[in-house]
Amino acid sequence: MVSLSADLSPLSPDRNLALELVRATEAAAIRAVPFIGRGAKEAADGAAVDAMRAFLGTVDFDGRVVIGEGEKDNAPMLFNGEHVGSGAGGPLCDIAVDPIDGTSLTAAGRQNALSVIAVSDRGTMLDASSVFYMDKLVTGPAGVGVVDIRLPVAENIKRLAGALGKPVEELVVSVLNRPRHEQLIQEIRDAGAGTRLMSDGDVAGGINAARHGARTDMCIGVGGSPEGIVTACAIKALGGHIQGRLWPRDDDERQRGIDAGLDMDKVYEADDLVSGNNTIFVATGVTDGQLVAGVRREGDYLYTESVVLRSASGTLRRVASEHLVSKWL
């Protein structure tokens, strides 16, 4: 195995693995295409799961699924605790999978649906699956040491605007469009910033807030805990800022989290969500979005666009692929 950093173990995720994983997200995205706009999110997710798992089985690594489909969707494959990959002398990894981040977006034919895989060294990825939701704050590098999830949103907007050197009125904040966020959305607008309301897909929302040159500056609010861990893997490669607080829905869920060793009052920083500096994040567009273009067909070819982020090298690479349709029939 080849590594870009001398302090990485030969059994750590490396750049070769990063490019291998693209094949799995491409396969999941392509298999979801027949279901785009068809209103059948379970069928889309099932097809993507099958394709992703099949390709992961050909990759030379031993991946332990920390964040999988089973916890959210009672899926028979890619469940929490499952081992994937050939295991033939490859690195030992924690892995988070979301064959479709945005199944509702796919079913409705809306933008920003992704197929996602994130990996890190074995034993470094937080298992927060016992608590479904997490309150998150994500920004780009300008927010590091500047914003804090414990502060009022208006104060964070003011601080981030100052760090970015732009008027508050030019800041754009992404928030999931949910009834639980009505007050938060109003507070953002009262502070003078604009909002970008997301119908789903807060992984893409977080990455776009942290990415250089994107059209949003901050992503905040309550979304899935698994998505928070996945997003943290990407944020580490982008040099951005992420914090999270677990958001149990009731006393029973709170107790389940405590029993699992989670701290309900803790602000989880990036290194708490994914420890170390050796993460890989891979995503392929299912539908068009700010981060990547969705799958499209032109005649005998399918076209996909993917991003590959590695924290060890601090890189974001785009992978544009052409696929012969005949190979997917």
Account of the protein in words:
- By secondary structure, the protein is α+β, with helices and mostly antiparallel strands.
- The protein has helices at residues 15-32, 41-56, 69-73, 103-108, 153-164, 182-190, 202-210, 225-238, 251-259, 270-273; strands at residues 62-67, 83-84, 92-101, 114-121, 133-139, 172-176, 194-198, 218-224, 241-246, 268-269, 279-285, 296-298, 301-310, 315-324.
- The strands form 2 sheets. Strands 1, 2, 3, 4, 11, 12, 13 and 14 form an 8-stranded mixed beta sheet that branches. A 6-stranded mixed beta sheet has the order 7-6-8-5-9-10, sandwiched between helices.
- The protein contains 10 helices and 14 strands.
- A hairpin with a 4-residue loop joins strand 13 (301-310) and strand 14 (315-324).
Summarize the structure.
The protein has 329 residues and is of the alpha+beta class. It contains 10 helices and 14 strands.
Summary tags:
329 residues, alpha+beta, 6-stranded mixed beta sheet, disordered N terminus
Chain-averaged pLDDT: 91
Evaluate the radius of gyration: 19 Å
Find the structural class using helix and strand composition.
alpha+beta
For this structure, the quaternary state is single chain
- Give the count of helical stretches: 10
- Termini separation comes to 34 Å
Order of helices and strands: HHEHEEHEEHEHEHEHEHEHEEEE
Strand runs, count: 14
Range of strand content: 25-35%
